[in-house]
Amino acid sequence: xxxxxxxxxxxxxxTACMGLLSLMSVGCHAITDVHSSIPASxxxxxxxxxxxxxxxxxxxxxYGQVKPDAHLIGPGDRISVYVYGVxxxxxxxxxxxxxTQPVNQRYYPPHGSVVGATTGLPLEVDSEGQIxxxxxxxxxxxxxxxxxxxxxxxxIYREKQVTREDTERVLVSLITxxxxxxxxxxxxxxxxxxxxxxxxxVDHIHRGSADVVDLPVYxxxxxxxxxxxxxxxxxxxARELWIFKRSGLNDPHAxxxxxxxxxxxxxxxxxxxxxxxxxxxxxxxxxxxxxxxxQDVILDAGDVVFVPRREEYFYxxxxxxxxxxxxxxxxxxxxIEALALANGSVGGPLGQSxxxxxxGTPGHMIRPTRVIILxxxxxxxxxxxxxxxxxxxxxxxxxxxxxxxxVLMFQFKPHQAVFNGALNLLNFSxxxxxxxxx
Length: 438
Known about the structure:
It is built from 9 helices and 22 strands. It is of the alpha+beta class. It folds into 3 domains: 2-50 and 313-434, no CATH class; 56-66 and 179-307, no CATH class; 78-176, wza like fold, CATH 3.30.1950. Helix 1 runs antiparallel to helix 8. Mean pLDDT is 76; it is low at 1-10, 21-32, 248-252, 344-362 and 428-433.
């Protein structure tokens, strides 16, 4: 027969009553005061994040350009012109030049050394697309193919009566095409060696990479710039790229670094359009048209390609250990998956780590089933959203998706807190003293 002693029963009962009163008065109200929160099942669709899964990748050829059938002469091209007896003047034999092109050897090993021979006087097409020849002065070759340029040089020398059609020998050849030097700045993983981290761990120390790339004409596009600097952005990068347009150092309309930085910050915050900052997305809804023009991916000398790092996190707290957790880039996670990703127990009779048995207390006999999500609205206010995990197991409307900057607070409901608190305060080893009757 069980026998209760007065000295053991009174202090325990008093302690339990005081604990219950404190839970029902102040503490429980402070934890579960959710009268201003909105149920997850009633959350408007406008406040839900856009799904990430199911997005389609644009054809990779959309980030490149179509190469014409023939090279069109433009500023920066190096060509050779040979007119027998005139260019070069006084040359008895036909001069032969070796063609070389000092471009990035990592990407163009076959074209970075000798690529063939050419004949004539080497000339560079100026910024206006013109070259200067003896006896005829400057002539424009901008936009012409090599055969068209050869025909034009013949006609000009005939008009000047320098050569005759029956005896002329005129050759125009391309030595090296023009090259566009661009800068690629990447904030994703710069090396092939990728370090894996735990789901709840945040990489606070990160180093990006930068490359100066020489791209020949008709390959001066976003596709080739990514190919030479490591490929498509990794999972730690955003699903978009930025291109900062700059016509040149001598362009009066070019922005100085301070102005470019200020306009970039405003563009990132307000998502406004800027002709000198082009945003190129990598994914879109199936069937959606390209949100950029074909000329937007073409890079000119002085342009900067920027691969931004992904800054998407959510926060957990309450009955789970507080943490700042990165959101998956290509997957949607709901509130239940977010709690599992936080490595926190969802309750149970053993508590969060099984310490309930070691301490001799019952722990969480009733598991917590309430989650309060603090979601930041576009105007800066925070909206509390109430989620019932018990309902979320059977009702998909309760399993709302987690978006960036959400704060998830795992809590007890009032009756759950009271019941578990009472069990932990009433220590049965002191309250009940089994003794045998004499």
